[in-house]
C-alpha cells in the first residue's frame, strides 16, 4: 500500500468538508446531523475549532519526546461525559451568535486552507503540543484527519448530494479505528469503510450478526465517541 503523506490526507479531509458545505444556503445549514442536537452549522463550528487548534499547535513546536501517537491520543476521549455535554452546549450557543449560518462557512473557508498550508510547511520530524499532549507532527495531522472524516459523515444524513470524504483521508481514519481494536480482532467483511467508521464511533449500532462476528471484541464498541 502506498504510504500516505499526512498533510495530503488532511488537505483532502478539509477539502471534502468545504465541498459539502460550500454551496449550502442558510436553510440547508440548519439541517440535522448525526451529532445529537447539532445542526450542520453547529457541527461545522466544532470542526472549525479543530482547524484553529491545528494552526496554534503547528506554531508551537516543542523538543519532545512525544507522549502519545495518533491512536493512543483517542483513548483519552471516551465520549458521552459531562465535558462533552458542556462542549456541545457551548458550540450551539456560539453558532447561534453568528448573524447567519453562512458566516461560519466563510470563516471555515478562510481557516481550513491556512491550517493545511501550515501542515505542509511543518517539519515532519518535529513534535508539537496540543490539548496537554506532545505528538509528532504526522500523528497530530492524522488525529485531525480522523476527526474531520468522521464529522464529514456526520454532516451528510440530510444532505443527499454531498460528496463522500476523500479516499486518502478515509484510509487514515480507518487505520485509526483499526489501531483502537485489539490485535486479534477481524472486523466483519461485509462492512465498507464508511460503515466501519460509523459503527466504530457509535453512529450506527452493531447488529446481532456484527456482535456474533466480532465476538468479545464487540464490547470494545464504540471505539471512540
TrEMBL record:
Molecular functions per Gene Ontology: isomerase activity; metal ion binding
Recorded superkingdom: Bacteria
Keywords associated with the record: Isomerase, Pyruvate
Signal sequence bounds: none
Domain Mycothiol-dependent maleylpyruvate isomerase metal-binding positions: 11-155
SUPFAM superfamilies assigned to the protein according to its UniProt record, in alphabetical order: DinB/YfiT-like putative metalloenzymes
InterPro entries: DinB/YfiT-like (IPR034660), MDMPI_metal-binding (IPR024344)
Name of the molecule in the record: Maleylpyruvate isomerase family protein
High-level lineage: Bacteria, Bacillati, Actinomycetota, Actinomycetes, Micromonosporales
